[in-house]
Amino acid sequence: MVSRGFLAKIARLGAGFGAVAVLAPAAADAPLRYPPATIVMFVAGWCAPCHGEIARLDDITAAARPFAVGVTVLDESAAGRAMMRAVPRDQLLMFPPEKRRQIEARLFRDSAGLPYSIAIDESGRVCADRRDGLDAAKARAMVAACRNGRTSPP
User: How confident is residue 30, by pLDDT bands cut at 50, 70 and 90?
Assistant: First the structure.
């Protein structure tokens, strides 16, 4: 889980993370909302396949169009911080600590672990997910599933 100190460290990084998207609902008890028409990749510094996903991020992003691709780093280790530096700042998604706990609880309830990715349709609903390393072909397939109206459970 991410501490307030970690979020403060990110804020102090200044130019390196100047366009970090911090996603928070209007009220603390409001449901978590992801950016619409987006594939969200959940990664961590300790996850070897996740490093491969970050290395392929440009290809994944191109294949996902017209969807955007955002990355949420789930740890604050040195390896996690290095991953964050490798992600273009306009693709880095940060959540407040209480929402991160919700994400982590759902993530580890619904999957065996990382890597894990979800696709969010234009209405903000989860419409596809992957429980393995994401690449361009898999990103394209996730977008196609969303566009064809197939949805996974919320």
Answer: low
